[in-house]
């Protein structure tokens, strides 16, 4: 019988269990042996491949072991044989040792690994190191020291580049925000939303940058019709690549602005391109252009009026002057005394004929005198040299005098009527100039009224007096009403007169603190109104 034949089942199980334990132990020893042989074979290679200098030292910084290859030995002139047994303080500069010591103390105190940095000068070149210290046990520490000079250089370079990029971006942002033009960028792939909106655009539109960016035209502009027009322009740029046009838009304050806009389609890093818009606000320029056009038209009209005036003035001067000069020549160059006597009506002893000759000379002399007086008055008013003689003026006295002077001058079939007025109403003013205004208006009414009536008078309204002259004459065409008070303006170009009378009336009333205006219908008649303050106020 064999050795195990006499064993019970329980005994056999115990034996099997013990054998399994021995096998497991032997397997473990074998595995450990293999691992030890593997480590022995490859540990050096592994250490050589590491970029770190591995040093083991105790809590006093005494070096126990240097476990690294010469390639990673950062302490110049040392090797494992010369460095083991030394103190870290003896082989590195003081500032480097202080960094290592502080890191060691931190690891000893916390029991956790820690990282510190220091620098060393090797071969005249500054090197930067990163030391990582870990506790091995209660007695020893492992220090992994790595040269990070290239990393530091890269970080410095990257930081410098980042700073330069930041500086350039800041400069560009300042430039874009301070140029006096509109600048914006739209994303065609996101419903044409604004990606950029500069300060000039924000200030002109009244729409803040933070409000505009990320929004569409329809979301930010108050006029929806304008917003749809902007969108149509964006679609057009998508087709053409570039557009330049004049555009109007409404600001948040309700102002209408005009902009010369250039939109350009530019590629982006994304699938969809961008639309870059550049605009110049030309509102003020367009206003100036309109004003210049108006000024040019006004100047052309003034030039035409001046030419008309000069031609008319020449005629107005020549007509009475020719009559006077012609009659004088007859007298001066008559050969015989009897001929001269005939011209003046002496020979015929005809008093009526003599009176006609005298009236002829007087009338034409008066026309010349009035003409020169109008020119002198206009010059004085424009130069501001006209002076007023202010006193209390009873208006009924002025009107009565004008009635006496003009009632016989009206055309046959026309009545001159001084309306019922306040006989006691007086104002502070210049008698002669007030009379001049009324006389000019009456003269025009008499000149253009062939039948009916001419009324004149005045009435008090608060602190002013409103005078008037109303006729049933030919009336003033509507196109003439707007220019009738302008210099050289005339109701009828074919009627004798300088065209300065109404201009002088306007300037006189304004100088005395009043105003003048007209209401007229062709074929019905005309009424001129003027106001004067009760108390004189020279303007």
Descriptive account of the structure:
The termini are far apart. It is rod-shaped and about 190 Å long. With 539 residues, it is an alpha+beta fold. The chain is 49% helix and 23% strand.
- As a whole number of angstroms, the C-alpha radius of gyration is 57 Å
| Mean pLDDT across every amino acid position | 80
Give me the CATH architecture of the largest domain, please: 2-Layer Sandwich
Structural class: alpha+beta
Distance between the termini: 154 Å
CATH superfamily of the largest domain: Histidine kinase-like ATPase, C-terminal domain
Return residue spans where pLDDT drops below 50 for at least 5 consecutive residues: none
Shape: rod-shaped
CATH topology title of the largest domain: Heat Shock Protein 90
Largest sheet: 5 strands, antiparallel
CATH class of the largest domain: Alpha Beta
């Amino acid at each position: 019988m064999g050795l195990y034949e006499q064993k019970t089942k329980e005994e056999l199980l115990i034996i099997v269990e013990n054998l399994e334990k021995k096998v497991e132990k032997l397997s473990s020893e074998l595995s450990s042996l293999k691992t030890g042989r593997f480590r022995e074979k490859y540990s050096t290679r592994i250490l050589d491949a590491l970029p770190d200098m591995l040093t083991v030292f105790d809590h006093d910084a005494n070096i126990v072991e240097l476990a690294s290859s010469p390639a990673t030995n950062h302490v110049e002139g040392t090797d494992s044989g010369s460095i083991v047994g030394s103190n870290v303080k003896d082989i590195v500069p003081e500032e480097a040792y202080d960094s290592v010591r502080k890191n060691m103390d931190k690891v000893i105190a916390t029991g956790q690994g820690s990282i510190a940095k220091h620098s060393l000068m090797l071969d005249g070149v500054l090197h930067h190191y990163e030391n990582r210290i870990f506790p091995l046990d209660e007695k020893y520490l492992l220090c992994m020291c790595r040269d990070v000079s290239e990393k530091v250089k890269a970080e410095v370079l990257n930081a410098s580049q980042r700073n330069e990029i930041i500086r350039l971006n800041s400069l560009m942002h300042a430039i874009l925000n301070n140029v006096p033009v509109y600048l914006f960028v739209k994303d065609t792939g996101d419903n044409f939303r604004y990606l950029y909106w500069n300060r000039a655009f924000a200030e002109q539109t009244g729409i803040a940058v933070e409000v505009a960016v990320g929004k569409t035209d329809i979301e930010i502009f108050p006029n929806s019709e304008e917003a749809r027009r902007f969108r149509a322009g964006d679609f057009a740029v998508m087709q053409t690549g570039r557009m330049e046009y004049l555009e109007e838009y409404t600001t948040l304050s309700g102002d209408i602005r005009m902009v010369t806009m250039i939109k350009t389609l530019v590629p982006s890093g994304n699938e969809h391109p961008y639309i870059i818009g550049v605009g110049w606000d030309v509102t003020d320029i367009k206003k100036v252009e309109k004003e210049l056009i108006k000024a040019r038209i006004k100047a052309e009209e003034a030039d035409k009026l001046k030419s008309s005036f000069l031609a008319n003035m020449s005629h107005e001067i020549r007509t009475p002057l020719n009559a006077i000069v012609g009659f004088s020549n007859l007298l001066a160059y008559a050969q015989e005394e009897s001929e001269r006597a005939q011209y003046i009506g002496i020979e015929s002893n005809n008093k009526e004929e003599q009176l006609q000759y005298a009236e002829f000379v007087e009338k034409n002399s008066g026309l010349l005198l009035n003409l020169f007086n109008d020119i002198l008055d206009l010059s004085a008013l424009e130069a501001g040299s006209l002076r007023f003689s202010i006193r209390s003026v009873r208006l009924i006295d002025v009107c009565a005098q004008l009635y006496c002077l003009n009632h016989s001058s009206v055309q046959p079939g026309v009545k001159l009527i001084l309306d019922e007025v306040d006989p006691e109403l007086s104002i502070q003013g210049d008698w002669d100039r007030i009379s001049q205004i009324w006389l000019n208006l009456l003269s025009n009414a008499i000149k253009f009224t062939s039948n009916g009536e001419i009324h004149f008078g005045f009435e008090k309204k608060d602190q002013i007096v409103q005078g008037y002259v109303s006729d049933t004459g030919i009336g003033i065409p509507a196109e003439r009403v707007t220019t009738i008070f302008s210099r050289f303006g005339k109701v009828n170009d074919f009627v004798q007169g300088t065209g300065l009378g109404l201009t002088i009336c306007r300037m006189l009333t304004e100088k005395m603190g009043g105003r003048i205006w007209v209401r007229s219908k062709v074929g019905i008649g005309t009424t001129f109104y003027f106001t004067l303050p009760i108390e004189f106020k020279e303007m």
